[in-house]
Amino acid sequence: YYLGGLIAIGAMTLFMTLGWESFGGAGIVSISVLYAAVGLKITNALSAKNLAIPAGICATFVVCLTPLAIYGLQQWLGVWPDDSVYRDYHRYIQWHWLYMELGTLAVGVMVAWKYKYPFLIMPIAVTLWYMTMDISAMLSGGDITWELRALISMYSGLLMIGLAFWVDIRSHQTADYAFWLYIFGVIAFWGGLSSQNSDDQLSKFIYFCINLLMIGAGVLLVRKVFVIFGALGSCGYLGYLAFDVFQDSWLFPIVLTAIGLGIVFLGILWQKHEKTITQKSRSWLPAPLRELLEARS
């Protein structure tokens, strides 16, 4: 299901060719509307047969057509500001993508509200990420540096993680609507964090600690994406210590081995007393968070 759906979505987004420009604005709008109508018809047919996954994929396909339709409309009306083309939408940061992103968010929210399929949150999460970068380009007058991109990505990812947590608390008894928000929130946050340039040892150690906190958050919330990226960042820091800081030290591998074995021992203790530790730790948490963790465990 997902392979076919992603190929169809990619064909109208990431893999769009310049040949479509020959249709002109009116042609692009007409084809987009036709595709959307067919997509909604298939979605309704699959939904009536209780085929939730393919129905959700088809509904998501309709949402992903929105930026193409808005681009075509702007070309048709003659209000497109420069010579950039639609295929650049997924490659470059520019302020005039904002109309396409706002339209995609509006359509995405409406379709998600109507059909309530978790996969529909995916284009919404991607668009939120895109929009934060394009807003920064608009505010900076189009001259956006790599450092600013990394900083904005980090903070926008943090906000998206907060939104995902709020959605998780509100919807954990129905469906996993927070999944894609967590995915792209963590990618944006961790990518921005890892792109920060600093030669300060304290900053690098803080980076390591943040990655450890991400692993802890992933274990607590039962979200593997935190654990995966936290582990990648932690291993990156340990690799930096091994190859740059302690490259001539014979003691570092021994200490690292001892730490690793200590973690294994702590894992054994945790497994042995997991039920007691879990009950005591959760008793201190607010009721909504406690209910969320109990539902996930």
Automatic annotation (TrEMBL):
Keyword Ubl conjugation: no
Segments passing through the bilayer: 6-39, 51-73, 93-113, 120-142, 148-167, 174-193, 205-221, 226-243, 249-270
Keyword Membrane: yes
Keywords associated with the record: Membrane, Transmembrane, Transmembrane helix
Protein name: DUF2157 domain-containing protein
Organism encoding this protein: marine sediment metagenome
